[in-house]
Design brief:
This protein is an alpha+beta fold. It has two domains: 157 residues, Creatinase/prolidase N-terminal domain (Creatine Amidinohydrolase, Chain A, domain 1); 220 residues, Creatine Amidinohydrolase (Alpha-Beta Complex). The chain is 36% helix and 23% strand. The strands form four sheets. A six-stranded mixed sheet has the order 4-3-2-1-5-6, with helices on both faces. The protein has a five-stranded antiparallel sheet with strand order 11-10-12-15-16. Helix 6 links the parallel strand 5 and strand 6. The longest helix has 26 residues.
Length: 387
């Protein structure tokens, strides 16, 4: 295994005139090293780090000593510096390589970063430090420890590198989406049996876990509660004629999936069908407009104007967002984001209606920008289903 897209990191370092890029944000560490950092995303503060060195075009991973065997088992093509005390009872004669690495552990994460900077002789160079997972206090401490370098904030460089996905990333995100869609479909069986909102949402979480994923955000809502964006209830179940809306995100193998659909328990009313047709039209307008050269804010205007033509002018904060190692990545398809789309970006497109008296209507697809438009990664039908 190797860094996800070393060419993109190298290009960012060269463009900014930096000798090295340092990060302690778990998603960026995974991007730089290829190491799955999912568990570290749930820990407070910095607990691992990575350095990308422009001269060698190579990454160093600094991580707790207890995680060293898992990295060695993953066969990553990177340099390693463990830190902290070794928790293992270990016979150095039986495991000499592991014992040697553990004996050279740095005392702390920051000491490990300093060691990596010294080893690669970039301590007097220009270093971009990702501020994304550093509090103001942490930044001051790290800046003092790296005072011999010309330090500057670099979170934007990491995000810019990650904006364009590799084919392997798109494949991983497609697999994550399949797992998420299947988990939701399995959970809908409980709705037919009269399960409450809360029961179905718990089942979605369980199905995600059984497939090796984590629930991230969102919910399935029924009836008018969806229109008010109320939390799932243990006493509310879908009744005939109720809308059923789900907008759920899950994390698999370090990558996010996010999808939304709308259905009806039994026959839908004419008003419900009218509302869904408006959402569907706006969704198709967005799909048709996504292509290299399109501007994020213009996509927002397309989605909003299509809804307004149907007499539904309630503005949303955005009509989509980038997705990848983070659930929300640039660009944000909002009125103020002037990002120009390029081939290889992966976006979630959504244009919901939240109607207090009726419920929620929404569609959300994940697409990859291609040379002449976009390709939808979802497999589940967008139709207004009857459950």
């Amino acid at each position: 295994m190797a860094p996800i897209n070393p060419q993109r990191l190298q290009a960012q370092a060269e463009m900014a005139g930096l000798d090295a890029l340092i990060t302690c944000t778990p998603t960026n560490v995974q991007y730089a090293t290829g190491y799955d950092t999912t568990m570290f995303r749930f820990l407070p503060g910095p607990s691992l780090a990575a350095i990308w060195r422009k001269e060698e075009q190579r990454a160093t991973l600094i991580l707790p000593a207890i995680r060293l065997p898992s990295v060695l088992d993953a066969d990553l093509d990177i340099d390693l510096i463990p830190y902290g005390p070794s928790p293992f009872l270990l016979d150095a004669n039986t495991h000499p390589a592991l014992a040697e690495r553990l004996a050279a552990s740095a005392p702390t994460l920051l000491a490990g970063v300093q060691q990596a900077v010294r080893n690669q002789d970039v301590r007097h160079g220009r270093i971009g430090l990702d501020e994304g997972n550093l509090s103001a206090v942490h930044w001051k401490i790290w800046a003092t420890a790296l005072a011999s370098s010309a330090l500057e904030p670099a979170a934007a460089h990491w995000l810019a590198a990650r904006t364009i996905k590799t084919e392997q990333e798109v494949d991983q995100m497609t697999l994550a989406l399949r797992h998420l869609e299947a988990s939701i479909e399995d959970s809908l069986l409980a709705l037919a049996a009269g399960g409450s909102e809360a029961e179905i949402n718990r089942l979605i979480r369980s199905c995600l876990a059984l497939r090796g994923g984590f629930f991230g955000a969102g919910a399935l809502c029924v009836g008018e509660r969806g229109g008010a964006v109320l939390p799932p209830s243990d006493v509310h179940a879908a009744q005939p004629g109720d809308l059923v809306k789900w907008d759920v995100a899950g994390l698999f193998g370090g990558y996010w999936a996010d999808t939304a659909r709308t259905a009806c328990k039994g026959a839908a009313s004419s008003l419900q069908r009218q509302r869904f047709v408006a959402v569907e039209a706006a969704h198709h307008a967005l799909l048709s407009a996504v292509r290299p050269g399109a501007i994020a804010s213009e996509l927002y205007r397309i989605g909003h104007s299509t809804m307004a033509q149907a007499g539904l002018s309630a503005p949303q904060m955005h009509v989509g967002h980038g997705i990848g190692l983070d659930l929300y990545e640039p660009p944000l398809l909002s009125p103020t984001d002037e990002t120009v789309l390029v081939e290889g970006m992966v976006l979630c497109l959504e244009n919901p209606i939240f109607e207090i008296a009726a419920g929620a209507f929404t569609l959300e697809d994940t697409v990859v920008v291609t040379a002449d438009g976009c390709r939808v990664l979802n497999q589940t039908s967008r139709s207004f289903r009857t459950l």
